[in-house]
Here is the input.
Amino acid sequence: FPTLFYLTCPRLTSAIGTLEASGLMAEWSERLTEDPELAAHYAAAHESYLAEREALGHVPEIAGITAGGMPTRVKCLHVLVGHSLAKGPGVNPFGDMALELLGDWWTGTSCAEGWVPPVEDAS
Here is the structure.
């Protein structure tokens, strides 16, 4: 599993799922093919992601593979937003753009609101 950064907040993952369902990823993937500067920035995010994961340990099966569609398409906003949140603005352009569209998603309630703990097996 090549994903190094991923989201666990149910509230945020739901909001991102709504963005994904809007068809935004196809639009952004198309934009990637038309904007060389954006493509270079996304390729740099890919390289940064690879270097950080490799520093944790080498896994031959995923060498050279990032996540979220990097560097040639926009596939999973959950990964790209996780990358942006973990590394800060300016590292992953599509994660940053998605966060901008989400606005102040963290205000009002916590990520745990609405979470139901798993039922323990009494057997």
Remarks:
- Residues 70 and 119 are 37 Å apart (CA to CA).
